[in-house]
Amino acid sequence: MTVRHAKPAERLRLSAGISWLLVLTTAGAASAQVHAYGLAAKVNGVGISNETLERNFQEYLRENNVNLAAIRNPERVKGMRREALDLLIDQELAWQAAQREKVLATPAEVDEAVGAMRAQFKSEQAFASRLAIEGYTETSYREHLRRLVSARKYLDRVAENASKVSEEEVHAFYAANPEKFTMTEGSTQSIVSEDAAREQIRSYLQGVKGRDAVQAELSCLRSAAKIEVHLPL
Description:
Blueprint: H1 18-21, H2 27-37, E1 39-43, E2 46-49, H3 50-63, H4 74-101, H5 107-118, H6 124-133, H7 138-162, H8 167-176, E3 182-185, E4 188-191, H9 194-224, E5 227-229
Antiparallel strand pairs: 1-2, 1-5, 3-4
Helix pairs in contact: 3-4, 4-7, 5-7, 7-9, 8-9
């Protein structure tokens, strides 16, 4: 039996590409970008620039292997752009919640995130050049990562608090899904026992509960927030 599940807060993961991490602007960078490019949205008064949205949209296309030139339906492009903006809004909401709850990244966690990104470049100079292109100093980039890691840390805590799974839930899942526990080898079928499958079932249910809790939390944060979208999406 193989049950796959995604990490509950995977939408805020650290990826190998620098663009994915350059989506929550620092206060200084946001001010300059908004002045030059205008706002895509505001979240409780905090602006998300059009430049930030465009950068995130390009990363969204790369991650999903989408060739924009091959898309003939403009409504589909609008929908994907809105998904990219919604992700940015969720990230900003999670960062604001992390500040309220004081679930903030430690200096060591920020160091680890910076190190992971620096390792993607052949040299320190190449890394510094990329930061400069994106409008960051090393100090402002560290602050940017502190925000992103804090947001992820907050949602990870939400998922963890909701992911307790009882023995009754494990048994109910096993009983309700007999087809998932039948193995066929040649002409022989065998049944995977509940004891043998217990930990895998528990892990799967924890993932489901965690994901659901994160989505519920983000929906709650959205409902309580003042969100203004300035693009004709």
